[in-house]
């Protein structure tokens, strides 16, 4: 097995592997992974044929995510996924990243634990054809995302999550402005929600907000998707968000464990009404 850097020419590989696994990524998602971290996305080759992928993303200088660990089903069980993970970790250590995070499936968690990752908290993916949430919430106002407001939202997100996610959020806002809502109190950001279309469903998130704004933002985002398949990944500790998903007739598809290697991030779990997905937290 050899491991090399992923390029745009590998988009069909990534898309094919994510479809093989039944995951939600589109070609736009894969293109975004590479553009955000062009030196940190990797392909494993076996006897010269590409058979696996992983991606990394460094936020600011201290926090990184590992995602998209995919191996062709015909060659699983041969250490390819572990080799990709170790290669990604070496890359991030060279970048002197203090905290490495990921969202692990139950099957993947033991592998990550052997590499030194420790659990932080649990999330559940809720899915279904949305209905309007049964509880009544104030409709979240859509504000025009000018440069100043985008900067304010990104700074709000940094305070709530402990991570400078500017390069991800700015891309999401630019690509899918119609899915962005925010709540303001005067000139102060109280919360926002974004989203993106996927191969299987609309991914609702990230949604980061105060207690007062989160209910209206999440319920408003789900109400915009009535009758359409949606995914929304919610920390189980955010009971209010879980109730909104359940009141929209969404059911738990699977659970993830958010894990970290290195210094633990002081993120505000109660402010995470939905994550951006397992790719970037």
Give a quick rundown of the structure.
With 281 residues, this protein is an alpha+beta fold. The protein is built from eight helices and twelve strands.
Q: Can you give a write-up of this model?
A:
This protein has 281 residues and is α+β, with helices and mostly antiparallel strands. The chain is 31% helix and 33% strand. Strands 1, 2, 3, 4, 5, 6, 7, 8, 9, 10, 11 and 12 form a twelve-stranded mixed beta sheet that branches. Helix 5 packs across helix 6 and helix 7 runs parallel beside helix 8. The protein starts with a strand and ends in a 7-residue tail after the last strand.
List keywords for this structure.
twelve-stranded mixed sheet; 281 residues; alpha+beta; 8 helices; globular
Please estimate the helix content: 25-40%
Q: Structural class, please?
A: alpha+beta
- Globally, the shape reads globular
Low-confidence stretches: none
Distinct helical segment count: 8
- Count of DSSP strands: 12
Rounded to the nearest angstrom, the distance between the terminal CA atoms is 29 Å
Question: What's the order of the H and E elements?
Answer: EHHEEEHEHEHHEEEHEHEE
* Radius of gyration, in angstroms, nearest whole number: 18 Å
Mean pLDDT, all residues: 93
Percent of residues in beta strands?
25-35%
Largest sheet: 12 strands, mixed
